[in-house]
Amino acid sequence: MTFIGLLWKVIYLAIFVTTLYALVEAVRTPAQAFPAMDKQTKGLWVGLLSAGTLISLGAVMGWFVFMTILALIAALIFILDVRPAVRGIGRPGEGPYGRW
After folding, report:
1. Angle at 27 (CA atoms; ends 45, 36), nearest 5 degrees
2. Which residues have CB under 8 Å from 39's CB, separation 6+?
3. CA–CA gap between residue 26 and residue 47 (Å, rounded)
4. How far apart are CA 14 and CA 62, in angstroms?
5. Where is the chain membrane-spanning (predicted)?
6. Spatial contact of 75 and 18, defined as CB atoms under 8 Å apart
């Protein structure tokens, strides 16, 4: 394997880890937090991020390489926009400034 090929594998692995992290955060977030902050539904985000995680895993294995950028875009939108907005809403034992 050449250096460039190894570099692409590392990039695809980083994208996979990013999409997996976004998926776990979407699953952990309560469903009522999404409409409360005027975001799309939890089901939509979990579905998009699940597909993105599978696509990025496929890129690590050498398939779906051309669709990996779409998986990364969905994960980054969730991490940078949706997650900060819905974070902490509806989680028991947490107030607006952290744990009680």
Report:
1. 65
2. 45, 82, 85, 86
3. 10
4. 14
5. 6-24, 45-78
6. yes
Q: What is the length of the chain?
A: 100
Per-residue pLDDT of the chain (100 residues; tens, 9 = 90+): 799 989 999 999 999 999 999 999 999 998 888 888 888 999 999 999 999 999 999 999 988 788 899 999 999 999 999 999 888 676 555 555 655 5
Amino acid code (one letter) for 90: G
- The pTM for the full model equals 0.83
Residue type, 99: R
Chain centroid to CA 35: how far?
18
What are the distances in angstroms from CA 68 to CA 30, 33, 39? 27, 28, 24
Burial (0-12, 13-18, 19+ Cβ within 10 Å), 53: buried
DSSP H helices, 29-77, are 33-36, 42-61, 68-77
